[in-house]
Queue: 2 jobs
Job 1
Amino acid sequence: MSLTADGARLTEAHRLAQLAQARKVQAQLLAVWPMLSLDDIDGTREQWLTEAVAPVLAGAATSAQIAARYYQAFRQVEIAEPVPPSVGEIRAAPNVARATVTLDLAGPVALKQAISRGSQTPKRDALARMLGDSQRLVLDGGRSTLASQVHTDQRGRAYARVTSGKACAFCLMLASRGAVYAKDTGDFNAHGTCACSVEPQFDAAGNYRLPDSVALAQSKWDAYRLDQENNPDRYAGIFSGTKTHGPNKGEQRSISEADLLGFRRFLEDRGPAGWNPAT
């Protein structure tokens, strides 16, 4: 959790508000999806992209506004100080080029790939990817805004990755590290359909309490590490194996790549029921 109960409530309310914004944009994208014709992908691509990029950019801008309002309220309840103007004015600018390329790959290109694979439901397959990638684009507006504000704010120390109760192994692994994401740790790393958010840390005295979702992620990661220590043979093949796909196929897996695969296997072996995650 944060320093205060009000801060914790704000963080959860912010996460849900961001998801609602992503769902609003996805509904708009569903409405224009029929414009991309299965019989004439190239002929309908440009018009579909025009209609699809606009709501995503608007959604990302709104996401940034939602995040900025949350930061202002959260900072006030946590340390009883208003946000400095230089920090409060920060907004992540929607990236037109990135949105266009991402939606092109997730829409027309993904549709062609599904057809070439012999999929019986190419539009449904491409639609799932497009909606997932659009969510990432929209929510990145808020995530980038918050990360920039924390890193610019003199009172900002770092931020924690806040997950839902249904987070994947990748997000749980990153969330388990706690409030360690400072200016030198790079951008917020998100995948398509990622619903993770940010909670700032302002306290320098060690009184900060991690969000419940982060504490849950840490408990899962610690359990994986213990299982790895007690049952090394179960993971030996993962850590000694090589990459099975991608441009670096055949190369030795890095420790972080192997750890992610091992953690994913650990979670899958136990199943979601064994964790009873909060939603």
Note: The first helix runs from residue 5 to 32.
Job 2
Amino acid sequence: MRRKKAAFLCLAVIAASVALIAQPDTDGKASKTGGRAVITIYLAGDSTVAAAPRSRAPRAGWGEMLDDWFDDNVMVKNMAASGRSAKSFVEEGRLSRILREMKKGDYLFIQFGHNDEKVNDPARYTEPFTSYQSYLKRYIDGARTKGATPVLITPVERRRFSADGRALNSHGLYPAAMKALGEREHVPVIDLTAKSRQRFEQLGPEQTKQLFLWLAPGEHANYPHGIEDNTHFHKRGAKEIARLVVEGIMELNLPLRHHLIRSPKREPIRDRLSDETP
């Protein structure tokens, strides 16, 4: 009788263990990490970084495309949110949520500027060399307190051109303020403002429409009347901006470069515009 009870208990324990193993991965991590401890790159930013809802496809943020560049030892967690500035992201508690999750060895990529420029919106506006820098320093200090590495990313450019086809600066003093803060605080800076402006000028006014959310009437069901958006990206544009961020990782010689699965300069830009692969 005792042997039967012992055998039954053994079978029950095995069944329970199998059931636990079979539980679905609700946060999506196990699909890439296999349960291992990995480096997490947290993204803090605005709509140019954030994941776009399906109702706005084919719009996409560059943060959606970053994970595909890394091996299984790195996971990207895109916490960026549309419409936020360096200030409002903090005041809404979004930075605090990131810091509660963050662990030693992780990264915090920080891109703000688009909404910090809104002078008539006190909930979001920051002044480049004062409040903008002071809010950004809260991200830096928070990440360092957790043993993580902060990386500043100057705001990606909008699609703006001069009459003679030169790509224009659309962010005023904010990129310079971020770079000055990075130098003062010894924080790596990816100058995405300069990188994106250079790429847009390389392509010119017409071809850059392929990167941004420019759609003719009837071209996509989500935009039956068409759209001409010079701030937000088409999926192919989000991929190209993510590529520029990866270039910055390599140029800064960040340890993350060892986890890249391919080179960001694999093929010419004009080939990429017609290629929907990452």
Note: Residues 2-21 form the longest helix (20 residues).
